[in-house]
C-alpha cells in the first residue's frame, strides 16, 4: 500500500484487509512520505524526521490506539490479524522528530474484508453407526479475491471445540474435500470428549486463517440390515444350499447394494471371509447359496450394506441353522 502524506479527512484509496473475518482487520501497512512535505515539516520544527508512529483510529482521527513505531528509513508495519475494528477504520501514520510528533498524519483507510464460504454440504455415506465419511463441499465467498486456501475441520461445536482437521488445506479454486470413511465421531483414546457434531470451513489468506468459520451440522447415517435368516435346502451334512434373506434398513436413501459373506468362527468380524456371489442391488433382500456348497470352517453369515462410497465395516451377523427336516435326514 502506497500513499502520499495527506490530511486525515482526505478520501484515500482503501487498504487491503487480509483478515477475512467481518469486524476484524489485519495486513501490511506501507507508506511513501512526500519528501517536500517532510522537509517542510522538519524545517518548521527545526528537527529532522527520526521515525514514524502508527495508530489505529476512527475516520476523523479520534480514539487512536498505537500499533507500533518505526525508524525513518522503514515505511512498513504489520497489522496483526484478529484486530477488532469496532468503530475504528483508519490507520494514521505520523512522522516524528526527537522532540515532536507531526500534527497532520498520513491517513490510510481500510475496507473490512468479509470472505466466508456459504452453502456447506455433507452427506454421511459411511453406513455404520458412530462413523462418518463422504464429500464435504461449499460455495466460494462472494468476494474470493484474497482467499488463498480453505481449511476444513470436524469439531464438537460450531466454535471449533476440539476440532480435527480434514486432510490438507484446499486451494482457493477448489470447493470440496473427502472425509475418509470410518472416521469415528468419538475419539476412543480421549477419556472425556463429546462427539463431533459439526463440519467447519474456514477461509485463509496469505496472512491468517479466519477465526470464525461457517458450520454445518453432521447427521450420522446408520443403515444396517436386520433379521437375517438362512433356509437350508441341501440335505448333506457338510454342505449348504438355499436362500439367505434379510430385512432392509429403515432408511435406504444412501444404500446402493448388499454384500453377503460366509465367515469363520470365532472371527465373526470378517477377516477370514468369503463373499457369496456378487453384490445384491437394493430392492432385493435375498441371495441363494448354491446346492452342494461346502461349509468347511464357515460358521457365520454376514450381510453388509454398501453406499456409493464404501461397504460398511460392521455387518449384521447370524448363524446358518439347519432346518429340522434337514437335521433329521442327516441323522
How many domains is the backbone divided into?
3
Measured between the Cα atoms of the first and last residue, the distance is: 94 Å
Helix content: under 10%
- Major pleated sheet: 5 strands, antiparallel
Low-confidence stretches: 1-13, 327-331
Account of the 3D structure:
By secondary structure, the protein is mainly beta. It folds into three domains: 24-109, Immunoglobulin-like (Sandwich), CATH 2.60.40; 118-217, Sandwich (Immunoglobulin-like); 226-330, Immunoglobulin-like, CATH 2.60.40.10. Helices cover 5% and strands 40% of the residues. It contains two helices and 22 strands. It has helices at residues 35-45, 324-330, and strands at 24-30, 51-57, 65-71, 76-84, 90-96, 106-109, 118-122, 131-139, 149-155, 164-165, 170-171, 176-184, 198-204, 214-217, 226-230, 239-247, 257-264, 273-275, 280-281, 286-294, 298-306, 316-318. Strands 9, 10, 11, 13 and 14 form a five-stranded antiparallel beta sheet that branches. Strand 9 and strand 10 (164-165) form a beta hairpin. It is rod-shaped and about 110 Å long. The chain starts with 23 loop residues before the first strand and ends with a helix.
Amino acid at each position: 500500500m502506497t500513499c502520499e502524506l495527506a490530511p486525515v479527512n482526505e478520501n484515500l484509496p482503501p487498504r487491503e484487509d487480509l483478515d477475512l473475518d467481518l469486524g476484524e482487520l489485519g495486513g501490511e501497512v506501507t507508506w511513501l512520505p512526500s519528501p517536500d512535505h517532510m522537509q517542510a515539516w522538519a524545517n518548521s520544527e527545526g528537527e529532522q524526521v527520526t521515525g514514524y508512529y502508527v495508530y489505529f483510529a476512527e475516520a476523523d482521527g479520534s480514539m487512536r490506539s498505537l500499533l507500533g513505531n518505526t525508524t525513518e528509513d522503514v515505511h512498513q508495519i504489520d497489522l496483526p490479524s484478529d484486530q477488532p475494528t469496532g468503530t475504528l477504520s483508519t490507520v494514521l501514520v505520523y512522522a516524528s522528530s526527537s522532540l515532536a510528533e507531526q500534527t497532520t498524519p498520513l491517513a490510510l483507510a481500510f475496507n473490512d474484508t468479509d470472505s466466508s464460504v456459504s452453502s456447506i454440504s455433507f452427506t454421511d455415506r459411511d453406513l455404520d453407526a458412530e462413523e462418518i465419511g463422504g464429500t464435504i463441499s461449499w460455495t466460494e465467498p462472494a468476494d474470493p479475491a484474497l482467499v488463498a486456501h480453505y481449511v476444513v475441520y470436524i469439531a464438537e461445536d460450531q466454535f471449533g471445540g476440539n476440532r480435527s482437521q480434514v486432510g490438507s488445506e484446499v486451494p482457493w479454486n477448489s470447493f470440496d474435500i473427502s472425509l475418509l470413511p470410518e472416521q469415528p465421531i468419538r475419539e476412543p483414546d480421549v477419556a472425556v470428549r463429546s462427539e463431533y457434531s459439526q463440519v467447519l470451513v474456514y477461509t485463509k489468506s496469505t496472512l491468517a486463517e479466519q477465526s470464525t468459520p461457517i458450520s454445518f451440522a453432521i447427521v450420522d447415517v446408520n443403515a444396517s440390515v436386520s433379521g437375517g435368516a438362512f433356509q437350508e435346502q441341501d440335505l448333506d451334512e457338510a454342505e449348504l444350499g438355499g436362500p439367505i434373506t434379510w430385512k432392509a434398513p429403515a432408511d435406504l436413501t444412501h444404500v446402493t447394494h448388499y454384500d453377503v459373506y460366509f465367515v469363520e468362527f470365532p472371527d465373526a468380524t470378517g477377516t477370514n471371509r468369503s463373499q457369496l456371489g456378487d453384490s445384491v442391488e437394493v430392492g432385493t433382500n435375498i441371495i441363494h447359496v448354491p446346492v452342494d456348497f461346502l461349509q468347511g470352517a464357515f460358521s457365520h453369515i454376514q450381510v453388509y450394506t454398501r453406499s456409493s462410497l464404501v461397504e460398511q465395516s460392521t455387518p449384521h451377523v447370524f448363524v446358518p441353522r439347519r432346518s429340522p427336516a434337514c437335521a433329521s435326514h442327516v441323522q
